[in-house]
Amino acid sequence: MSKLKDAGINWVIIGSRTQPTQHPPREWVDEIITACDKAKIPIFIKEPLASYYGIYRQEFPSFEQ
Description:
- This protein has 65 residues and is of the alpha+beta class.
- It has one domain.
- 35% of the residues lie in helices and 9% in strands.
- It contains three helices and two strands.
- It has helices at residues 3-6, 26-39, 49-53, and strands at residues 12-14, 43-45.
- It has a two-stranded parallel sheet with strand order 1-2.
């Protein structure tokens, strides 16, 4: 099992800082996405980050046990 799943993480939301808008580095976003994909954890990328990097993923977790 992955460290993310072991830590109880079942959903990751990625976004930018607001007021003023500041986007995280693309490398960070890519690393988070890769780790989540390997662990089969859904990802929700908020606007304006999704448009800024052209990554549109708005997945939701399954709450089934």
